[in-house]
Amino acid sequence: MNLTELEREQLLSATRSRTIRAADARRAKLILMLEDGESRDAIIERLGCDSRFISRWSSRFLAERLAGLYARHPGRSPMQPPEKLEARVLGYTLKRKPLDGSTHWSSYK
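Above: the chain's sequence. Below: its structure in token form.
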């Protein structure tokens, strides 16, 4: 792999981060394990992945470096617009009282 110092720092930071997506942290761990010379069997056992996962992300990393570790699937759009859902929730809470007998809604309900 021949990681640069900056790449190694960013990958280590990703593995330690509590706010990064779990999939991104898993890919970062994979690249670091490959750089350290761990066997494919050890990686498969430790990360709970298969050989296709290893080959896909290692080849993307070799081709594009850190930029290749980001998933290309942008996700899906919401089923209904967020404004419509927010309006529905607000309408429900303003027109109805809680069923437990309390006088107002709180964030705990």
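The mean pLDDT is 89.
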